[in-house]
Amino acid sequence: MVYQAFYRVYRPQSFAEMSGQQHVKQTLQNALLHNKTTHAYLFSGPRGTGKTSAAKVFAKALNCENGPAKEPCNECPTCLSITDGSNTDVIEFDAASNSRVEEMRDIIEKVRFAPSNARFKVYIIDEVHMLSNSAFNALLKTLEEPPSHVVFILATTEPHKLPLTIISRCQRFDFKPITPSDIIDRMKTVLADAGIESDEDALKVIAQAASGGMRDALSMLDQVVSFSGDRLTVEDALLVTGSIGEGIFYQLAEALLEKDAGAALSLLDRLIAEGKDVSRLAEDFITFFRDLLLLRTAPSMQDLLELVSGDERFVELAQRFDPDLLYSFIDILAKTQQEMRFSNHVKVYIESALLKMIHLDVHPSQKNSGQKDDAGLSQKVAELEQVIKGLQQQIASGAGIQASTEQVAQPRKNASKSMQSFKIPTGKIHEVLKMATKKDIQTIREEWAGMMQTLQKSHAALLDETEPVAASENAFVLKFKYEIHCQMASENASLRAGLAEALRSRTGKAYDVVYVPEEGWLKVREEFIRKNKLAKQQDPDDPADTTSDEEPLSFVKEAEQENLDPLVTEAEKLFGKEFIEVFDD
Predict the structure, then answer these.
(1) Same structural domain, 523 and 547
(2) What pTM was computed for the model?
(3) Sign of the CA dihedral with 344 first, then 219, 289, and 232 last
(4) Which CA distances in Å does 187 have to 14, 24, 182?
(5) Is the pLDDT of residue 575 over 80?
(6) Engineering a disulfide at 87: which of 49, 81, 356, 569 sits with its beta carbon 3.0 to 4.6 angstroms away?
(7) Helix (H, G, I), strand (E, B) or coil at 213
(8) Rounded to 5 degrees, what are φ and ψ at 176?
């Protein structure tokens, strides 16, 4: 017979033979026992974790002549024909090589035909994410409501590429990476059946290199068996898989502790000369320092170790490393691994990473680190004692207490300086109001909306709730609704320059802008009007007064309107001033 690879010969033929995936097996078996199977399933997960194998086992259990059963019997004609792939009612469809809509239409046309010799017609569509959009659209309605004798099982390693409309029509099962212990148990079963002896450590090397994939593990096991013969050794497994032995890791750790750059780089060069992949080296180094960190912080959790055996030699080595140093090593290697992905000079990156690790300033001994912390703490305590002693002397003498209090209060004053309220420029506002005219304020208000559109968005946002309230020939008062916005605008030199330029381009005049919050404006305006009315009463014949016959300015109108009774104002709007007469009670 033609030789077949281990992963083909020892493909699981029942749920009991499947490694790991307990959540998947139990759910499917319960559905079979209680006759609650559905019409569509989605199996997703990393490569080599048993998706297609589980689909075939489920198809056998569903169509078994003794079922539906928790486990297929693997003895009836239906189970045997599904196992050897000759059953016409269990169709395995490879979407990677049949991704067009025409192939999908062919399946859809045959779906309506009843199964020829089985209970259900099962379609196993592998690598379903490779289907085209038109093929997905063609499958959509059939997948939602297939005939009662049809079951779809979709398998994929990239579920994120599937349309949500497909995923929502299926029961989804996420297959997890298989643990190293499960992989080792399965490899022991395979080797025992094949009559081949092996070292436990050799199987650990293969399981670690498989990265959670059973198919990868059995393929590498097949390769190691072909290389070594009747007995698997650690050296053979390391050579075939390209992994690194514990001895090399131990030597590298010693070189890093001794800060021996020559020894570390020589080890790295030797590994690369032996054909080790540089990217794989970085990954192995990260795993190794992770194992040391585990031995350093949780020595009882040796079952979680991946690269080292956890014997006394590595336990002592881990104690010589400070945890912070191991954390730093892992960070450096992780960043290096990312940078290597985009470079053709990966050897330079791994060499630089080793040199960075050697020149780290973190102490390798926890004792030294503790002594340093104790020394710093003692120094701080001594300084505090001196300060307390000085304060006690001041209290005893009664002198300097007031000065000390002022010194303490001074930083508070400085700290809260920025939080003080906005200082209203009363003098500038009075100067504008003295020379204010109705024409000037109307000009600015007419151009204000257009001018706002020419400003930067950040400046326009700050001036969003502002209003020009008084203007003279060369300046105007800008009122802000909120004091904080007023202060921000007054401190923003870029805004002041932009506003002045925008007004000059729109009006032809270079106006000076006086900023004032709304509350401050009301107070200053009231004070100005009161003083001017009082001055007119005292000197009504003043020849310099030119505003007596003019229409009141806008800000004066606003002040008078605010003092009116709102009921009177509303009555005047409805009936006219000539029909309204107000009596004071």
Answers:
(1) yes
(2) 0.56
(3) negative
(4) 17, 22, 9
(5) no
(6) 81
(7) coil
(8) -100, 155
